[in-house]
Design goal:
Blueprint: H1 4-9, H2 18-27, E1 35-37, H3 40-68, H4 82-89, H5 95-126, H6 132-142, E2 169-171, H7 178-188, H8 197-210
Helix pairs in contact: 3-5, 4-5, 7-8
C-alpha cells in the first residue's frame, strides 16, 4: 500500500480531450490560460434580433397612439390614468386598452431582456486578448505539439478550430506582468513553445537557463 508521500507523488493522467485540457487550464498559477472565444458573430446577431423585436413593439405602440387621435374622451381615460388602464385592460369591454396593457408588459419584459443582454455582452468585449506567448503555449498544448511534428487537436469535430481566430479570443484574467507568466510556462511547459526539432533544442536550453 503506497505511503502518503508516494500517493502525493502520483501524477494523475487525464484522458485526452476535455479532461486533459481543463486540467491544463486550471493548472496555471496565474490563470491566464483561461482563454475562450467570444463568439462575436453570434452575439451580434442575438442583439440584432432583440433590437428588431423592440422595433416591432415600438411600431405597435405608435399605431395605437395614432388611433387615439380619433378616440372619444371616455376611450382615452386609460391614456391618462394607470389605474383605469389596468382595470380596463383586465376586463372585456375595452379591447384597445386590453391590447395596450398587454403591450406595456411585453415591452417592459423585452426591454429588460435587451438591456441586460447589452450589459452582458459589454463584459466580454472589455476583456483583454491573451498575450502572444501565452497563446502560443496554449495552442501548442492544444495541438499536442512535440518535436516529432505529428500534431493533433485535443478537441475533435468543429471544436478543433476554436483557437484559429485570435481576434475572437479573450483571457478571463490577464496577468499584468506577462513576462512572469511566460517564465512560468517556459520553465514547466517549455515543450509547448516548440514547433520544430530545432526549436525543441532551443527551448530546452531556455528551460535550463530559467531553473
Amino acid at each position: 500500500m503506497p505511503t502518503d508521500a508516494e500517493h502525493d507523488a502520483i501524477e494523475i493522467q487525464y484522458v485526452k480531450g476535455y479532461p486533459s485540457l481543463a486540467a491544463f487550464i486550471a493548472s496555471d498559477t496565474y490563470k491566464s490560460t483561461f482563454i475562450y472565444r467570444r463568439f462575436d458573430r453570434l452575439s451580434a446577431r442575438s442583439l440584432l434580433y432583440l433590437q428588431s423585436e423592440l422595433v416591432e413593439l415600438e411600431a405597435e405602440q405608435d399605431a395605437l397612439e395614432t388611433e387615439d387621435q380619433y378616440s372619444s374622451t371616455d376611450e382615452l381615460k386609460g391614456s391618462r390614468d394607470w389605474n383605469i388602464l389596468k382595470a380596463r385592460g383586465r376586463g372585456e369591454s375595452y379591447e384597445r386598452d386590453q391590447k395596450r396593457l398587454c403591450l406595456v408588459y411585453e415591452i417592459r419584459q423585452k426591454l429588460k431582456e435587451y438591456r441586460e443582454a447589452l450589459i452582458r455582452e459589454s463584459t466580454p468585449l472589455s476583456l483583454k486578448r491573451p498575450g502572444k506567448r501565452t497563446l502560443e503555449a496554449f495552442r501548442n498544448k492544444f495541438m499536442n505539439a512535440d518535436s516529432s511534428g505529428e500534431n493533433f487537436p485535443t478537441l475533435g469535430g468543429r471544436s478543433a478550430s476554436i483557437l484559429d481566430d485570435e481576434n475572437e479570443l479573450v483571457t478571463l484574467r490577464a496577468w499584468p506582468h506577462d513576462d512572469k507568466l511566460t517564465s512560468f510556462l517556459r520553465r514547466y511547459f517549455a515543450l509547448f513553445f516548440v514547433v520544430s526539432p530545432k526549436r525543441a533544442s532551443e527551448a530546452q536550453q531556455a528551460n535550463w537557463t530559467l531553473t
